[in-house]
Description:
By secondary structure, the protein is mostly beta strands. The protein has no helices and eleven strands. The protein is 0% helix and 53% strand. Strands 2, 4, 5, 6, 9, 10 and 11 form a seven-stranded mixed β-sheet that branches. It has a four-stranded antiparallel β-sheet with strand order 1-3-8-7, with no helix packed on it.
Amino acid sequence: QVQLVESGGGLVQPGGSLRLVCAASRSISSINTMKWYRQAPGNGREWVATLRGTATTNYADSVKGRFTISRDNAKNTLYLQMNSLKPEDTAVYYCYAFPDNWGQGTLVTVSS
């Protein structure tokens, strides 16, 4: 088991950027698969991005080219860099670590 704590959410204007941070309670070096999900108001939880190892990434079509998932094993941290944000990116963003570890979420609001 690993505890995950997300931070970095907030209010940003359309076209702006945010970097989400997921801090783990222990080393994540042995955790191959980590992901970001999001849940918009009134919607179900949606997969956003996957990182396997340190370099194999996959993205939902809705964020491809705008979001970047990365990790720093030395800091036990997973990141999500979000650029060119759109109002439809508004959601609570959750960090996930295989096999079934979730953070509590951080709210991202994109609005002018």
